[in-house]
Amino acid sequence: MAKRRKELPEILVELGVLKANDAAKAQAAATKSHERIEDLLVRAKLASEEDVTKALAIQNDMEYIDLDKHGLAASDLNLLPPDLIRRHQVLPISKENGKLRIVIGDPNDLETLEALRFRLNMPLETCLGVKSKIKQHIDRLFADERKSIDDIMRKMTVDRGASIDIKNAGGDGEEAPIIRLVHAILSEAVKSRASDVHIEPMNNRVRVRYRIDGVCVQRDNIERRMKGPVTARLKIMAGMDIAEKRLPQDGRIKMDVDGTTIDFRVSSLPAYHGESLVLRILRPDNVRVGIQALGFEEDDYNKFRKIIARPNGIFSGHGPDRLRENHVAVRGPG
């Protein structure tokens, strides 16, 4: 006989958090208002968020992680793309035998778990943590990364002078402000899972935008006086001619970000207020995405491979469960 799944108020009574009559009243109120019982208990201050989360962990047979006691380092964030961490409010804590262990705040958020499995193409082991503490840890762990560019620009605003002279843009000194600024911009773009970086001179500033999930998001406004040194530094890194400002140029940059070599394809284009640069970020992990990572069922995956192995023709899907070949006059490989 299957084991009965206990209700949340019942578990809280067993833990000594709720009295039986309060549990019954809360259950009735949640049913009447169509509110989730866990939200009602916290809102009515009948139980703390931590107590409710512990009860949810017991109810769903999950491990509870006390984030105040569990040692989380900034390096743990490298186990999961930053955009997924921020968007889904989850924390990666370890990876063993190809399985990623993460802390989530809502065990019933199946949509988030499915999205993570699809994106990562790996099994997940989920633990439960207090939702507000997960947010606090994410904000804290990303705080230094967010502040790095702001701090460099603030220092450069105060220290006006030779430190941003264009002739120093190609120097090798790691402490040169322009070098650190450009490195911070590119590093943050990679960690934000941006596909492009746009450096655009305006009338009174230089606008920096990241293209994330197809949408350009403004990150910074750099002082107008820094346009020349920033542009020169990027062109030097890309092997472009810094003296040529009237013709379009292309180049490439290779840079290590958190131990991974990232390629940037750089294009410069003359514009009304000066040269505009666009950097396309080419990640090695994007190249290794296999067909199975697209989410095919096994039978459709086998049909797909059989069809694309043929020397001509394309295919299209007609109906939810079938892949049908549709021969057209298209010359395939070979």
List keywords for this structure.
25% strand, alpha+beta, six-stranded antiparallel sheet, 3 domains, globular, disordered C terminus, 334 residues, GMP Synthetase, Chain A, domain 3, Beta-Lactamase
Describe this structure in words.
The chain has about 325 residues and is of the alpha+beta class. The chain has three domains: about 10-135, GMP Synthetase, Chain A, domain 3 (2-Layer Sandwich), CATH 3.30.300; about 160-285, Beta-Lactamase (2-Layer Sandwich); about 290-330, no CATH class. It contains eleven helices and eleven strands. It has helices at about 10-15, 20-35, 35-45, 50-60, 80-90, 110-120, 130-160, 175-190, 225-235, 285, 300-310; strands spanning about 90-95, 100-105, 125-130, 195-200, 205-210, 215-225, 250-255, 260-270, 275-280, 310-315, 325-330. The strands form three sheets. The chain has a six-stranded antiparallel sheet. Helix 1 packs across helix 4. The longest helix is centred in the middle third of the chain and has 28 residues, at about 130-160.
